[in-house]
Specification:
This protein has 95 residues and is an all-alpha fold. The protein is 76% helix and 0% strand. It contains three helices and no strands. The chain has helices at 13-32, 37-57, 63-93.
Length: 95
């Protein structure tokens, strides 16, 4: 919330850098994890980053489409992390 501009439909470069940093962190986690869920989290975060790049390269993309896509990728990241958290006790009890 410190860098998000609520009333702006323009490319939010501050959020672009936050998403790039998160992508790097998720890739780092995925490379060190034994599970598959970090790969999905990193992939959804990559889509969020690419959405910013697409908006920079093509300003004709509407603000509505841009902001909606960002929200969709964010929710998919959260759902994947939630699923991994929900199923983690079951996977470890089988070992």
């Amino acid at each position: 919330m410190m860098v998000f501009r609520r009333d702006s439909e323009q490319t939010q470069t501050e959020i672009l850098f936050v998403d790039l940093t998160l992508f790097a962190i998720y890739v780092w986690i995925a490379l060190r994890s034994h599970g598959f869920w970090p790969l999905f989290v990193a992939a959804f975060q990559l889509l969020a980053f690419v959405t910013h790049i697409a908006r920079v390269l093509d300003p004709s993309i509407t603000g509505w489409a841009y902001l909606t896509a960002e929200r969709v990728w964010s929710y998919l990241v959260l759902l994947t992390i939630g699923y991994a958290s929900w199923t983690a006790p079951y996977r470890h009890s089988e070992i």
